[in-house]
Amino acid sequence: MIMLAGISPRDFEYKKNVLQQIMKETGAWSLKQVEDPELGAGYLWRFIRTVGSIRETARASDLLRP
After folding, report:
1. How far apart are the C-alpha atoms of 22 and 9, rounded to whole Å?
2. Do 43 and 34 form a contact (C-beta atoms < 8 A)?
3. pTM
4. What CA–CA distance (Å, rounded) separates 50 from 17?
5. Largest CA distance in the chain
């Protein structure tokens, strides 16, 4: 599962477009259920809550640190 996060709406849209291009070039596809806001939130919660340590998760703001 790939989760995208942006530090702004413009950043998120850019990352989403890049991912769509990569998917097109590699023949990958999206699971439409994961893109549904209601269902996607449940998937996200299930993947994050299984992480044993907060250090194993990433935040968009981490990208701004030197």
Report:
1. 20
2. yes
3. 0.58
4. 29
5. 36
| CB 57, CB 63: distance < 8 Å | no
In whole angstroms, give the CA distance from residue 36 to residue 8: 21
Dist CA 61 CA 55 (whole Å): 14
| Residue 30 CB contacts under 8 Å (≥ 6 apart), including other chains | 23
Q: What are 8-48's pLDDT values in tens digits?
A: 999 999 999 999 999 999 998 887 777 787 777 777 777 77
CB-CB contact of 50 with 56 (8 Å) = no
Contacts 24+ apart (CB under 8 A), 11-16: 11/60
